[in-house]
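Write out the 3D structure for:
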Amino acid sequence: MEDEKIEDIEIRLLLEALYRRYHYDFRNYAQASIKRRLRQARDRQGVATYSALQDKLLHDPAAAAGVLRFLTVQVSDFFRDPTYFKAIREKVVPHLKTYPSLKVWIAGCSAGEELHSLAILFREEGLEDRTLFYATDINQDALEAASRGIYPLDRMKAFTENYRLSGGKASLSDYYSTGYGGAVFDKSLRERVVFSDHSLVTDAVFSEMQLISCRNVMIYFDRDLQDRAVGLFRDSLGRGGFLGLGSKETLRFSEHVDAFSEFVREEKIYQRRKA
């Protein structure tokens, strides 16, 4: 028990150091998840304590980058939770088609699987040419991976099935070629994408979005940080705009819940109230 208390103190100091030295703020992330990921980072760095890990990241930016990779979630799928994308296609897109131009924010875009999924969906629905996508993450390695659009070939079978179940209108293979040891997605899918380093913890809003998709990110935040993120989304969305969350996330307990109505309850898609 005493060792656990000491570890908790060490972790708080480490997260404070990471914020002050590099401006990445994980201080209000859910502690169980942070502890698990920091344990992995500590073991990978070959040190015995979190204090030693703190000393290393303070003096070695490369070590800090390694720790950051453990603290940010990078695993996703194309058309993850296909029914979510089917609901976007069938229920949200008809509303989006009434706008002359669109802005879509993928917050916490990881390595770009969800970005490419939405770009393909918007192309198939005739919305790509009028849409500007913003793909943001706090992990620079993830943003670079997303901008390359190269994914392991052994994942294509699962991705293809997800695409089919989501209501895809063609074949997923139409959108990629093989090369560089993987599946290389057509660069034209990224021509209308702005990639940006952005933190839901410390950074400001984007303005007048029609759709924000932020899925399986807020489950790693504590309640106060969740409220901050939802407040950013509220202020970033135009009235009548849509917010999509992950399957285990909800606005039910948010202080901003009154700003939204449930649009597709089972898929955690909300709409910014118009009044």
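The chain has a mean pLDDT of 91.
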